[in-house]
Amino acid sequence: MASTPALSEDLLAKYEPVIGLEVHVQLLTASKIFCSCSTRFGDPPNTNVCPVCLGLPGALPVLNRKAVEFAALAAMALECRINEVSIFARKNYFYPDLPKGYQISQYDKPLAEFGFIEIDLNESKTNGRRKKIGITRLHLEEDAGKSLHEGFADATHKTAIDLNRTGVPLAEIVSEPDMRSPEEAYEYLTRLKEIILYTGVSDCNMEEGSLRCDANISVRPRGQREFGTKTEVKNVNSFRFVKQALEYEIERHIEVLESGGKIIQESRLYNANEGKTYGMRSKEQAHDYRYFPEPDLLPLVVDEKWQAAIRASLPELPEARRQRMMKEYGITAGDAHTLTLTRALADQFESAARTARNPKRVANLVQSELLGRLKAQGLELEQSPISMAGVTASADLVESGAISGKMLKDLYDLCFERKQDFPTVYEAQGRPEQSRDTSALEKLADELIAANPRQVEQYRAGKKTMIGFFVGQVMRASNGQANPQLVNEVLKKKLEG
Ligand SMILES: [Zn+2]
User: Fold this and answer.
1) Ligand 1 center to residue 37 CA distance, Å?
2) Which residues share a beta bridge with 75?
3) How far is the centre of ligand 1, averaged over its atoms, from the C-alpha of 151 (Å)?
């Protein structure tokens, strides 16, 4: 947990944080970016390698077309402009997991530039306050190998290298330094991941390293235009830790500056257990890498025709989808937000909503009855015992008044207990129906009317909403078993009679 001595509100308010993020996303191609080796995760170490990705002398890279298309698709989803001509460059540095001694990346002519992501500035995501975070560039590059420090016999004094990951295609997405708080950074990452997942070009699995984040952070006195000296927190493996690492760094920067010290431009590592960052090495400048154009690859040309073909496969993106769903199904912004958390959920909801009598009821059921139960049991949507067809069927039964909300809850509980879909359980229970016997209801209504003369008075004087009071009382008295429609009818008759 964050362990800097907490700074006073006044001191924190005196400074403005400036945050920019670099995100690496692994593209879901079957083979590597410059050779035909498999990109499969979890294979035995050093089995998916060849002379090209091992960097043996004389081996020549051949660009993977699919990697270009995936990166371009992601760039389009992030509102970037695709550069018709981009250039691969060698980024030279030595590291044990980089056998070539350089990484093929893109430098001054990247695949795409000038994009943005819109983030919500309030947590409920419903009042429409949004901010654009600029995306400087998206470029293609190859991944390096992996140094292993644990998990084998002599790990205490040796480091092993697995080169399976060497040459796996990455899209690096660099933001403008537009974020002003750790919360904004968190929101940016959440939106970015959501958009990339919708495009399907990456699984963004942080545990497997297919999404990695480096965060650049500096602070400046409020009102000052020039940026302060920045530090870079490398390779943080969850969005929550990015936020915590940034919170820690902001306080650390302010403390150093307030005590008359200077921030050193450096890369730092975040230790999540301690909630602290540690200096790792002084930050390289671009010129340290001696970038130069990769002589073994031609300039990458993505002409208009190719761009159009890629653009044609761009799916409807989360924000546009939310807006459309709100209009189409009459659901709230909050509903739309929850129901578009993943593309699969949105697809499933829509397939149910389109056939249901009342889409709004489906939206409510999915959120209040289905997602809650899934979460409680630690299940993914794909593992749900109740299919979307089952949700539609149950929603229609409630809609027609055949079953009550309370009965639906009980049936859902049974579905989860027995791991069976709704129609199966509904049949097995003998198609239960809520009572349509009005005599008991009428008796209840008479009693309530006698006991609440003031409310009856108000209703009869024109305050028709007062019926809600009576409906609520009857529903409570019937333990939620009464049919609300029927209750309404009976009460109306009694109150107006
Ligand atoms: Zn290879």
Assistant:
1) 4
2) none
3) 25
Question: CA 254, CA 384: separation in Å to the nearest integer?
Answer: 48
How much distance in Å is there from the Cα of 287 to the middle of ligand 1? Answer: 29
Q: Are 141 and 172 contacting, i.e. CB atoms less than 8 angstroms apart?
A: yes
Residue 47 Cα to ligand 1 middle (Å): 10
What's the count of helices (H) and strands (E) in the chain, helices before strands? 18, 16
The alpha carbon of 76 and the centre of ligand 1 are apart by a number of angstroms equal to: 29
Residue written as token pair 């809609």: 399
pTM: predicted TM-score of the whole model, two decimal places = 0.81
Q: How far is the CA of 152 from the centre of ligand 1 (A)?
A: 24
Closest of 443, 430, 427, 426 to residue 478, by C-alpha: 443
Token output for 98: 């980089």
Contact 389, 352 (CB under 8 A): yes
Report the separation in Å between the CA atom of 155 and the middle of ligand 1, taken as the mean of its atom positions: 26
Cβ < 5 A residues, ion ligand 1: 35, 37, 50, 52-53
Please, which residues bridge with residue 8 across strands? none
CA of 35 to the centre of ligand 1 (A): 5
- Looking at residue 54, its amino acid is L
- pLDDT tens, per residue, the chain with 497 residues: 444 457 888 888 899 999 999 999 999 999 999 999 999 998 999 999 999 999 999 999 999 999 999 999 999 999 999 999 999 999 999 988 999 999 999 999 999 999 999 998 876 555 667 899 999 999 999 999 998 888 778 888 889 999 999 999 999 999 999 999 999 999 999 999 999 999 999 999 988 889 999 999 999 999 999 999 999 999 888 999 999 999 999 999 999 999 999 999 999 999 989 999 998 877 666 678 899 999 999 999 999 999 999 999 999 999 999 999 999 999 998 889 889 988 888 998 998 888 999 999 999 999 889 999 999 999 888 899 999 899 999 999 998 888 888 889 999 999 999 999 999 999 998 888 876 677 778 888 888 888 998 989 999 888 888 888 988 888 888 777 677 778 888 888 888 87
CB 179 within 8 A of CB 188: yes
For residue 258, the CA-to-ligand 1 centroid distance in Å is: 51
Q: Which two tokens stand for residue 482?
A: 């009464």
CA distance 114 to 81: 6
- Give the other-Cβ count within 10 Å of 416's Cβ: 18
